[in-house]
């Protein structure tokens, strides 16, 4: 029985701890089994967009409100997309996908709240009679949300936590660490079309005269299609990360299955072939325009899947990742997945940023040659001659990229958490990792806006730049570039604008202005690309910065750019 009184609904099915559902409030839905929350993956806004679970960070894509559908049923509307939870295709099959769709008030979009212990509820679909659960009771970020027989398991139980509260998953905001948001399948992040560009990098020693076909510093980022067309951006980037496909059957299938949606290769849905996440963007980039004229952009993929392999090993970030690479079963699946990803890129002219953070975890354990990894056994075809260590794995990933995606530049991510005090140790470790075999180094400037970090609720720390801080960072980039003879690409540069008011998606930062005002210094540090974008969903974006990044990019383009050095 449900009693409606104004905007508050008293739900008799729920326990005393979760008695009142306020139809004016937004809620975070916390899964009892995983502690993760219901998430509109990558803030997608298209019909059929996937719903997954993700670590709670407080973004609007993790906020849902309940719309009364009558007879004790509700529609769950996402705050970012405005779409509602939907039993895809009016399915009555166990394991079929739960997605987002335009609110049609259909029975397949209506759910009742069924009682479960300790303040949890089950979401039971009106049409199918099945409960919303996490596929295979997974605990990893990005795991798919499906419907299944209503059996009352912990993976089918959700706690409704009003936005602004601290629920069972901790604080509403993410911890201050460089953890990317979930990847974006809904906006087109195009890659380059095949061209006559020679090698990814030309030039020798510490100088770079061309990179990804350009003789000037590239400008790009994580932007929407509209923003990408509003300025002459050179590059767009997107993440690729999920646990690897469970079997080789995924790679050869003609179409994805509904229950494969948690794997990156099927993020575009069951009507597409595996790997469409990559090939679709390749087709989009061929149509990129600026001022009505064709202007194809490049694509940088951030391959970030060892984080998910760490989840498969049962320990997540850091410890789980280094444990996972020494497990033959897991590393075999990982390298098979990586090969399939490279094959989807094929002959396109793109770039790959390999495994942010991971090499820093390796460095914390000592010499990369001494960190064990089952490289030769996991991929005897491509890496049978590599040593069984983290250093061997780095070399394996680089050589595989050159083999299967020969026109694509591959970059080892520069994760030197102690760079300010121990740059020479970083130089030594990256030589041991084989960074000289890559085509560039990639590194993140800051995952969040300085104005966000400055707030007391987020630690009150100073992440704004001045000339002294900038000079120190550029000297580090220059040292690393010269140590391996390859350029550096700066990725995940915060988009904050000093004219903003330090509210959600409108935080201050000074790095966009600083970089564009000091492009000669950027080039002198052998920086070949500036890629702007947030590392967490509360941050300023190119769509919320008041047009600052777009204006600066247009002005830079009109100036003729800055030559690589």
Description:
55% of the residues are buried. This protein folds into 2 domains: 2-162, Trefoil (Acidic Fibroblast Growth Factor, subunit A), CATH 2.80.10; 201-558, Alpha-Beta Barrel (TIM Barrel). It is globular and about 70 Å long. The protein is built from 16 helices and 27 strands. An 8-stranded parallel barrel has the order 18-19-22-23-24-25-26-27. Strands 4-15-12-11 form a 4-stranded antiparallel β-sheet, with no helix packed on it. Strands 1-2-3 form a 3-stranded antiparallel β-sheet, with no helix packed on it. The chain has 565 residues and is of the alpha/beta class. Pfam families: RicinB_lectin_2 (PF14200). InterPro entries: Ricin_B-like_lectins, Ricin_B_lectin. Residues 162-207 are annotated as: Disordered. This is Lectin. Residues 162-201 have a biased composition (Low complexity).
């Amino acid at each position: 029985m449900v009693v409606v009184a104004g905007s508050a609904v008293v739900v008799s099915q729920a326990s005393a701890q979760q008695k009142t559902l306020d139809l004016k409030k937004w809620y975070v839905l916390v899964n009892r089994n995983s502690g993760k929350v219901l998430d509109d993956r990558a803030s997608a806004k298209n019909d059929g967009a996937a719903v997954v679970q993700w670590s709670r960070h407080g973004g609007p894509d993790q906020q849902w409100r309940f719309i009364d559908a009558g007879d004790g049923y509700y529609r769950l509307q996402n705050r970012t997309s405005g779409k509602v939870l939907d039993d895809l295709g009016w399915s009555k099959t166990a394991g079929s996908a739960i997605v987002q769709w335009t609110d049609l008030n259909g029975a397949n979009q209506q759910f009742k709240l069924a009682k479960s212990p300790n303040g949890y509820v089950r979401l039971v679909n009106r049409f199918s009679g099945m409960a919303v659960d996490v596929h295979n009771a997974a605990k990893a970020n990005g795991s798919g949300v499906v419907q299944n027989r209503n059996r009352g398991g912990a993976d089918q139980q959700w706690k409704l936590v009003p936005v602004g509260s601290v629920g069972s998953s901790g604080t509403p905001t993410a911890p201050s660490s460089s953890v990317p948001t979930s990847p974006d399948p809904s906006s087109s992040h195009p890659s380059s079309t095949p061209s006559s560009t020679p090698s990814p990098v030309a030039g020798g020693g510490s100088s770079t005269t061309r990179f990804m076909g350009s003789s000037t510093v590239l400008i790009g980022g994580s932007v929407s299609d509209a923003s990408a067309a509003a300025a002459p951006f050179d590059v767009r980037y997107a993440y690729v990360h999920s646990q690897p496909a469970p079997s080789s059957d995924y790679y050869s299938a003609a179409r994805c299955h509904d229950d494969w949606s948690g794997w990156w290769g099927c993020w575009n849905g069951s009507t597409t072939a595996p790997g469409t996440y990559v090939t679709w963007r390749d087709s989009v980039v061929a149509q990129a325009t600026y001022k009505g004229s064709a202007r194809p952009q490049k694509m940088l993929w951030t391959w970030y899947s060892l984080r998910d392999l760490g989840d498969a090993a049962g320990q997540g970030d850091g410890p789980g990742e280094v444990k996972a690479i020494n497990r033959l079963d897991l590393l075999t699946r990982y390298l098979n997945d990586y090969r399939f990803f490279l094959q989807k890129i094929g002959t396109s002219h793109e770039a790959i940023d390999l495994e942010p953070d991971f090499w820093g975890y390796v460095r914390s354990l000592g010499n990369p040659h001494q960190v064990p990894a089952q490289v030769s056994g996991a991929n005897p075809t491509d890496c049978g001659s590599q040593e069984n260590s983290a250093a061997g794995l780095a070399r394996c990933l680089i050589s595989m990229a050159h083999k299967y995606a020969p026109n694509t530049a591959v970059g080892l991510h520069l994760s030197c958490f102690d760079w300010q005090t121990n740059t020479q140790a970083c130089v030594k470790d990256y030589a041991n990792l084989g960074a000289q075999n890559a085509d560039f180094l990639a590194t993140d400037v800051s995952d969040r806006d300085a104005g966000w970090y400055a707030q007391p609720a987020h630690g009150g720390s100073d992440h704004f730049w001045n000339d002294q801080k900038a000079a120190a960072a550029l000297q580090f980039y220059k040292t690393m570039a010269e140590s391996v003879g390859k350029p550096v690409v700066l990725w995940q540069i915060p988009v904050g604008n000093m004219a903003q008011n330090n509210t959600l998606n409108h935080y201050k930062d000074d790095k966009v202005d600083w970089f564009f005002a000091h492009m000669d210094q950027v080039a002198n540090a052998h920086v070949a690309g500036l890629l702007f974008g947030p590392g967490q969903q509360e941050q300023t974006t190119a769509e919320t910065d008041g047009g600052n990044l777009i204006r600066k990019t247009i002005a830079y383009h009109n100036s003729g750019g800055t030559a690589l050095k």
